[in-house]
Write a structure and sequence with these properties.
There is one protein chain. The N and C termini lie close together (about 10 Å). The protein contains 3 helices and no strands. The longest helix has 28 residues. The chain has one domain. Helix 1 packs antiparallel against helix 3. The protein is mainly alpha-helical. Helices cover about 80% and strands about 0% of the residues.
């Protein structure tokens, strides 16, 4: 159970960090192959921001789940 708690918290922190960097800071290079797809015209900034927001949301949910497990289990 301890490994699950640690894993959830670490994954939550990582997803939140990457989501923050992509969504708020504009580090779109963190998305695999984004620069090449952008040059080819297949992806745009709107797509990158959507990916960043998704990662940020998943990260926050995992982090909250990990903290809840630490507090109540």
């Amino acid at each position: 159970m301890t490994a699950l708690k640690i894993t959830l918290v670490l994954l939550g922190l990582l997803f939140s960090l990457f989501g923050y960097l992509i969504f708020f800071r504009g580090h779109y290079g963190l998305i695999n192959g984004f620069r090449a797809e952008e040059r080819a015209g297949r992806k745009n900034e709107r797509y990158a921001r959507r990916v960043g927001l998704t990662e940020l949301t998943i990260g926050i949910l995992l982090l909250v789940a990990g903290i809840v497990l630490i507090l109540f289990c």
